[in-house]
Amino acid sequence: MKNLMIFCKVTAFNVSVNRLGGSFGGKFLSSLVSSGAAAIAANVTGRPVRLNLDLSANMKNVGKRWPLLAKYKAGCNKDGKLVAIDIDLYIDSGHLPCITMDLLPLIECAYHSPNYRITYQKAYTNKMGAGPVRGPGQIPGCLIMETILEHLCKESKQDIILMREINLQEDGQLTITGKELKNVTIKKVWNRLKQTAEVTSRQEEINRFNKNNLWRKRGLAMTAVRYDMEWPALGLSAHLSIFAADGTVTIVTAGVEMGQGLYMKIAQAAAYRLNIPVDYIKIRPNQNNVTPNPFITGGSTGSERSVASILMACDQINERLQPVREKFPDADWKTLVLTASFMAIDLSAEATQVNRGEETPYSTYMAGVVETEVDVLTGEFQVKRVDMMADFGESMNPVIDIGQVEGAFVMGLGAYLTEDIYYSKETGQLLNDGTWEYKPPTTKDIPIDWRIHLLPDTPNPAGVLSSKAVGEPPIGLAMGALLAIKQGIASAREDATGNQAFVPTNAPLTVEKAQMTSFIELSHLHVG
Questions:
Q1: Tell me, what DSSP letter sits at residue 103?
Q2: Are strands 348-351 and 216-229 parallel, antiparallel or unpaired?
Q3: Starting from the edge strand earliest in sequence, which strands make up the sheet with 68-76, in order?
Q4: Where does the record place the Aldehyde oxidase/xanthine dehydrogenase first molybdopterin binding domain (predicted)?
Q5: Burial 186-207 (b: 16+ CB within 10 A, else e)
Q6: Which residues are catalytic?
Q7: Is the pTM of the predicted complex or chain greater than 0.85?
Q8: Lowest mean pLDDT segment, chosen from 220-229, 377-386, 499-508
Q9: Is the pLDDT of residue 475 over 60?
Q10: Contacts of 5 (CB under 8 A, 6+ apart)
């Protein structure tokens, strides 16, 4: 009882969230342990408490993506058109229930099958509970679907790129969850990318390279993704204040800036709607006593939901300033707001844009072409070139959006190629809890030649300012790197052993795994 009274004596919390540095996923749920411990200590001692975790403790606490095993059956007709897909999923949930809500709608990527049967079972183990990280459903979803297509092509001896192309989704088709697709642009994205990336000629060049090289092999994969953007019922509020003395506009938003450009897009939107230079706009840290009851900043839509709210607040200000503009049509911004303040006009506003009538108002479509080169003897690889085409509607800020594409893709390279994890079989404890054993992507993993294109003239009628959200869709395209490496390994395996059989995909396809799937033996190594 004494402890309970100590815990409850503080009845008010002021929480301020500054700009975070690259915080996708890890600080969503796992941060509650650290923040709760700090709050209790502060409450008991009556003093400010700051809690810093070292890298090892942080990695053990945060958890990782949930491992899964997929067993599948799939069929297509003689033309390569998908007929049916049957998948049984077994998910290692750790000691906590896992969040799988976005795996089902994203497992089909941007391909259509008229018939699906999917079951999944959760296995509770003694491991740390997994947590949602950027593209939590898309990473395993793309791995499963692209593996199924690769396997089908291998068995039916069809061209993998053509099979993907004829199965791309179209308007009017139903998704795996029964939603009717509208404004589908993936075929336009695909065809434009196929031409600009010179896919056909590069495939021929890669075939020539592989014929002339025994131990270094290249591969090229072209893949597509669809990502459904969800607007939760709860919004991200925004508060706007104008200081009459110099015209400065300060904004506090419930959305959290974590490197995705949320603050910049808010500033641009406010400047656009108020018709003033962006230099007047100042973004202040997130504060719960100014923008209370926020929902999570996640699902890629945090920026646009915040922008939608600030646009509503700006509309309130414009409505109040309209009589002043009519009376003083030549007044500049500083004069306008100063005059309005002397007229006792309220120069602050707040608004919350909630669900816009449909929980999933639109989808973002992307396609990518990835070319890799692998050293068969060591398994080491290089991502030689990446071409990407994205339908982002009318981008609010192309520089930010392209940066998001780059960051998501490299994060995907880590998930699919390098970031393997190891647990103690006895205790379930994470064993590789530092960068000596845990391998995130580094400078050498970044594509050597990177070309990112935005599909022109495609405004999004369901988006904020005709734009689309961008944060998570690109991550699934990194699956192309894994597939391209597998192609190179398959070429070497066929040269050395004559084996053309399909090899199941085991991600992440680390250097060690890549070399082992080549089936190269000592007897294959000889001189002269």
A1: H
A2: unpaired
A3: 68-76, 82-94, 116-124
A4: 14-168
A5: bbbbbebbbeebebeebbeebe
A6: 472
A7: yes
A8: 499-508
A9: yes
A10: none
CA distance 421 to 178: 36
CA distance 286 to 18: 6
Contact of 488 with 376, CB cutoff 8 Å = yes
DSSP string, 302-336: HHHHHHHHHHHHHHHHHHHHHHHHHHSTT--HHHH
446 by Cβ neighbours in 10 Å (0-12 / 13-18 / 19+) ranks as middle
Give me 448's structure tokens.
């050597």
Whether 188 contacts 457, CB under 8 Å:
no
Q: How far apart are CA 336 and CA 314, in angstroms?
A: 15
pLDDT on residue 6: 33
Ramachandran region, residue 306 (left: φ > 0; alpha: ψ -120 to 50; beta: rest): alpha
Specify the DSSP element, H or E, that contains 228.
strand 216-229
> Parallel, antiparallel, or unpaired: how do β-strands 286-287 and 82-94 relate?
unpaired
Helix (H) or strand (E) holding 116: strand 116-124
Condensed to tens digits (0 to 9), the pLDDT of residues 251-309 reads 999 998 988 899 999 999 999 999 999 999 999 999 988 998 888 888 888 899 999 99
Question: Which string of DSSP letters, residue by residue, matches 36-47?
Answer: HHHHHHHHHHTS
Q: What's the mean pLDDT in 423-444?
A: 89
What are the φ and ψ backbone dihedral angles of 200, each rounded to 5 degrees?
-60, -50
CB contact burial 37-76 (16+ within 10 A = b; e otherwise):
eebeebbeeeeeeeeeeeeeeebebbbbbbbbebebebeb
Place of tokens 């199924």: 148
Q: How far is CA 65 from the centre of its chain?
A: 13
Spatial distance between the Cα atoms of 310 and 238, rounded to a whole number of angstroms: 5
Separation of alpha carbons 98 and 280, rounded Å: 44
Sequence-ordered list of residues with C-beta below 8 angstroms from that of 240, at least 6 positions apart, any chain = 249, 250, 251, 270, 310, 313, 314, 317, 348, 349, 350
Measure the CA–CA gap between 310 and 288, rounded to whole angstroms. Answer: 17
> CA angle, 208 as apex, 388 and 485 as ends, to 5°?
50
- Rounded to an integer, what distance in angstroms lies between the CA atom of residue 332 and that of residue 329? 9
Tokens 């750790």 found at: 94
Evaluate whether 353 touches 237 at the Cβ level (below 8 Å).
no
Mean pLDDT of 326-349: 96
459, amino acid identity: P
